[in-house]
Amino acid sequence: MTELKEFRLPDVGEGLTEADIVAWHVKPGDQVEVNQIIVEIETAKAVVELPSPWDGTVARLLASEGQTVDVGAPIIAVDVSGTAAGGEPAAAGKTDDAERSVVHAATAGQLQAAESPQAGSEPAESQPDQAGRQAVLVGYGVRASSTTRRARKTAPLPAAPAAPAAPAAVAAEPALAAEPALAAEPALAAEPALAPAVRALAKPPVRRLAKDLGISLAGLAGTGPDGTITRDDVHRAASGATARSEQEVEPNGARTASLAALPGPAGEERIPVRGVRKHMAAAMVSSAFTAPHVTEFLQVDVTETMAAVRRIRDLPEYADVRVSPLLLVARALLIAVRRHPLVNSSWDGDAQEIVVKHQVNLGIAVAADRGLLVPNVKNAAELSLPELARSLQDLAETARAGKATPADLTGGTITITNVGVFGVDGGTPILTPGEAAILAFGQVRDAPWVVDGQLAVRAVCTLSLSFDHRIIDGELGSAVLRDVGSMLEDPVRMLAWN
After folding, report:
1. Percentage of residues of the chain with pLDDT beyond 90
2. Residue range(s) occupied by CATH 2.40.50.100 in the chain
3. What is the average pLDDT value for the chain, to the nearest integer?
4. What is the 3-class SS of the chain, one letter each residue?
5. Which letter, b or e, does each residue of 192-217 get, where b requires 16 or more Cβ atoms within 10 Å of its Cβ?
6. Which tops the pLDDT comparison, 235 or 399?
7. 210-226: pLDDT as tens digits
8. How far is 269 from 257, CA to CA, in rounded Å?
9. How confident is the model at residue 183 (pLDDT cuts 50, 70, 90)?
């Protein structure tokens, strides 16, 4: 007898309510094992890979790539009837170990486990351990939403007709389920499986563009070599698409993303705001209109710092790391925080308290393809200079590659933004929400400078420090900025003040 289990979109440890389906790694008919990666999702903070909690056969994909899905909504149905006792182990302890392995992904900021289900929910995915407890992925057992949604304005998508199974070498395009949910009933065993569709030919950047514009590649005719879909094909499809005034709600609780290309003047393009960019926009608006920002500027002669960077690059301890002036800027800020602890704090409006953080988690603003990311180096003040250099490099590379985890992107206490890499002298950076200060490091350029009463050409940069004026007054902000500037003018001070 067929026994189907639905994998529901979990809360990946961030308290989020929805996520976008980025890419499926399986298709109907595939065999899956416990801990096998089955899907990539994009939350407001990161791209996360979700593993399967069971052994079995993929019955249906209940959400398609590019779709926005609510936490708790089913995204895939797996037939576990081929395993002993409907997915339970024939040998004692097998499933307990497998589920603990899946739940262990919480340490990477992807999945979390709870010792018992939420009140009023029945998480079918859990298995009791020897102590009688249930391992539950966060997001399992979520109650059906009581939110009233607008009625559908378009006809529901018909179920795909039965068809012979496609060759194993052909990838499948995820298909939407026509039913609101799948139940483990014998009658479903007689239903034909959905036939996998031939995956459209397109390069990853083109797929990303289509996803951002809300265009399905399935119905496009490619004009590239061998029928490959090009960027021009996607733009043409977007320009002719009909705008929808609201998102459609699927029976399974998922929401189909609105088309992004809306009618307008010729040459106009509209990009949907979702994922990281949506989170960034909301965070910046909240920060700008919650914390009273003050920004101070300081021009600094960093000639000695640039010389120190060149000498550090020649040391064997730094042979495998790219050393930039940002390394010494980071070290200078960490020392300034040690001298002025109040700058590493946050404002608790509910308790009307200032929370001073004794651990410095140094955030570094990174411009990635998915938007502005601010991963942070945990406990950065306790790292040696070589360790700090490697941590900064690894974190930036991970963020730009889209592999930063939610753990990397949360918990920061103070931030540096290196606007100098864009050829900018300075600015008025907006605070990262929950932090009291952010330092902008401008470009280093040659400029006339007075040294010992004589005019000389020196390496000069501008430092910009924005801070929350509820916590940091002008005297403290100026002292922090002046300390950082003094250490960059004379790096020996970093040793003296450390």
Report:
1. 42
2. 1-199
3. 75
4. CCCEEEEECCCCCCCCCEEEEEEECCCCCCEECCCCEEEEEECCCCEEEEECCCCEEEEEECCCCCCEEECCCEEEEEECCCCCCCCCCCCCCHHHHHHHHHHHHHHHCCCCEECCCCCCCCCCCCCECCCCCECEECCCCCCCCCCCCCCCCCCCCCCCCCCCCCCCCCCEECCCCCCCCCCCCHHHHHCCCCCCEECCCECHHHHHHHHHHCCCCCCCCCCCHHHCECHHHHHHHHHCCCCCCCCEECCCCEEECCCCCCCCCCCCCCCCCCHHHHHHHHHHHHHHCCCCEEEEEEEEECHHHHHHHHHHHCCHHHCCCCCCHHHHHHHHHHHHHHHCHHHCEEEECCCCEEEECCCCCEEECEEECCEEECCEECCHHHCCHHHHHHHHHHHHHHHHCCCCCHHHHCCCCEEEECHHHHCCCCCCCCCCCCCCEEEEECCCEEEEEEECCEEEEEEEEEEEEEEECCCCCHHHHHHHHHHHHHHHHCCHHHHHHC
5. ebbbbbeebebeeebbebbbbbbbbb
6. 399
7. 776 667 787 778 887 77
8. 16
9. very low
User: 278-497, what's its fold?
Assistant: Chloramphenicol Acetyltransferase (3.30.559)
Q: What are the start and end residues of each CATH 3.30.559.10 domain in the chain?
A: 278-497
Q: Where in the sequence numbering do the catalytic residues fall? A: 469
**In terms of CATH, what superfamily is 200-272?**
E3-binding domain (4.10.320.10)
- Looking at the domain 1-199, which fold is it? OB fold (Dihydrolipoamide Acetyltransferase, E2P) (2.40.50)
Q: Report CA torsion sign: 359, 365, 371, 375.
A: negative
CA dihedral in degrees (375, 439, 382, 322; nearest 10)?
70
Q: Which two tokens stand for residue 63?
A: 């959400």
Residue 114 in tokens: 């709870």
Q: Where in the chain is the domain with CATH 4.10.320.10?
A: 200-272
Reading the block at residue 474, the tokens are 């002008």
For residue 493, the model assigns a pLDDT of: 95
Q: Residue 380 and residue 384: Cα distance in Å, rounded?
A: 9
β-sheet bridge partners, residue 377:
362
The least confident of 18-32, 232-246, 323-337, 414-428 is: 232-246
Higher pLDDT, 66 or 14: 66
| Residues with Cβ within 8 Å of residue 83, at least 6 apart in sequence | 54, 55, 56, 89
Whole-angstrom distance, CA of residue 269 vs CA of residue 261: 6
62, pLDDT greater than 50: yes
